[in-house]
Amino acid sequence: MLTMKNINKVFKTDLVETHALRDFNLEVKEGEFVAVTGPSGSGKTTFLNIAGLLEGFTNGEYHLDDVNISNLSDNKAAAIRNEKIGFIFQGFNLIPDLNLAENVEVPLRYRGFNAKERQRRVKAALEQVGLGARMKHLPSQLSGGQQQRVAIARALAGEPRFLLADEPTGNLDSLMARQVMELLEEINKAGTTIIMVTHDPELARRAQRNIQIVDGQVCDFTLYQGGQSHLVDTAEKVAS
Amino acid sequence: MLNIKPIFSSLLRSKSGPVLLLVQIVLSVAIVANASFIIHERLGMMQRDSGINEEEVLTFSVFNFDPSIDIDQQNKIDQQILRALPNVQAATSTNMLPLSGSGWSSTLNMGPDPETAKSTPQYAMYLGTEHTIKTLGLKLIEGRNFYADEINKSVNDPGKLMIISKALAETVWPDESAIGKLLYIDDEQLEVIGVVEKFQGAWVDSDDLEYSVIHNVDFAGYTYMVRAAASQHEALQDAIVKALMKENPNRVIDDFQSVAEVKKRSYRDHELMITVLSMMVVLLLLITSLGLTGMVMFNIQRRTKQIGTRRALGATKGDILSLFLVENYLICISGGVLGACLAVLLGQQLMKYYDLPQLNLFYPVVTVVGMMLVTTIAVVLPARKAANISPAMATRSV
What we know:
The complex is a heterodimer of chains A (240) and B (398).
Chain A: E1 2-12, E2 17-28, E3 33-37, H1 44-51, E4 59-64, E5 67-68, H2 74-84, E6 85-88, H3 100-111, H4 115-128, H5 144-157, E7 162-166, H6 174-189, E8 193-197, H7 201-205, E9 209-214, E10 217-225, E11 228-233, H8 234-239
Parallel strand pairs in A: 3-8, 3-9, 6-7, 7-8
Antiparallel strand pairs in A: 1-2, 1-4, 4-5, 9-10, 10-11
Chain B: H1 4-13, H2 16-46, E1 57-64, H3 71-84, E2 90-94, E3 105-106, E4 123-127, H4 132-136, E5 140-143, E6 161-165, H5 166-172, E7 182-185, E8 188-196, E9 212-215, E10 223-227, H6 233-247, E11 251-258, H7 259-266, H8 268-302, H9 304-312, H10 317-354, H11 362-387
Parallel strand pairs in B: 4-9, 6-8
Antiparallel strand pairs in B: 1-10, 1-11, 2-10, 3-4, 5-8, 6-9, 7-8
Helix pairs in contact in B: 1-10, 2-8, 2-10, 2-11, 8-11, 10-11
């Protein structure tokens, strides 16, 4: 579903070149729940941005759903983001002046759905995250956990092929973090592929696969199967 | 995709900035619409056809200081000298200068009995000769010019004839020819022998400006009008002074000016008002566009992450551009509609207190359209900057 081969991302200034990703290789299969961990500055967010078509890469090859992502026009990239990818951000990124229904409706409007279809999807998505009764509330009237659930509803409303979550529990207390994580697991069980960047090893352990990024490269894979973890060499995994 | 409903809802929820901008647009539309109307109305006044060949008619005054001079005789000689000068097409003396703001005016009775007869409108009373029409370049459209032997020496002489402006003819005799018709001063009658297409009086602000009459009287005054090509006027001034001073050196010849210059001076206040109002219109539009640009730039700065998020969620650059345009068009249209209503109310007050005509609705409508154009120009540049915000901004901590 998602294949990255030898992806490099170099940020250049007049004085320095920073390699955010170096020969980055990764394959994510449909229906997987992958956690991406790594120290600050290791390239996790850069990977997420490239995976989510939020920014380009310097060289390499990236296929998403058999679509070659290199050299996509800005409008085509926007269309793919809108149709195939759902985003969940650490800071929720809800629009404060819009109520919950209007927030969830934002990507659906860009998709060009008619009003009836938008209403149906908004209602279904908010009900799925348990906020169906609060559609007219403003984000400021909700707790952090509820806001993140709205953000998840917004990501789900477009029925994307996969979800990209950037520290989805980073701004939540442990109880709310657990609730959000359970929601993500539920979504994954329903068939949506999830890639989640996190600092929290506990949460990472609940994913099917854990990828650690160090200095812009995939350092190791950890498969969690039946509660037992197995460290797998990167080269070996890619070869397999 | 315009997305008007959520944009409108969003504007209603964060009111202060949009409301300030709205008030600014309401006031701007009300003032600009009325100012544009007044400017257009004044320009229309200034561009009215006087019926006179304004550029070619050179006027001047002769001040005699010789007590023994026979004014009538000297005037006759001077007119002959002027007509004999090279490049002069026609010349005459006059009792008043057209469009000058001063002169003679009168009314006549439309019947012999002053008690029962209605009066004509107030008209500009020119005293002229058979040379007056040619000198001023008036177009005779009906009847005839004076003959030389019909010119009286005084307004009290018998045999009173008139050449009148078409506007006066149509007002006094709406459905019939004015030629041969009589008007009266007490029991004395005056006959209309000619009608000129247009001939304005002296007072440019008067409602009766178009009503003029030339009486067959050679007024031996001190003001003369000479017709010659405008390019000849400078040389002609020297020639006039030289020729008239040769004939009688005990006098001062001064105040050379074309009727075009006389007219320009009379419309000076109007010109000043047009300049001031035009500057005010430009300033208001500039301030409004700066307000809009400032508001958009502030919003972009405040909503950088939100714009990045919208881009991440699938908004194209065009969607972001249209978001800001629609947002500001909504403010502009709301302000425009309210401003147009205020413009009509303001126009009514101006009509009441300053004797202005009723505001034509065309002006508020055009002002709102113009305001939309200003909005587009003011918003597009910063909005394009917003459209270029990277979707990756959504994952950054800003």
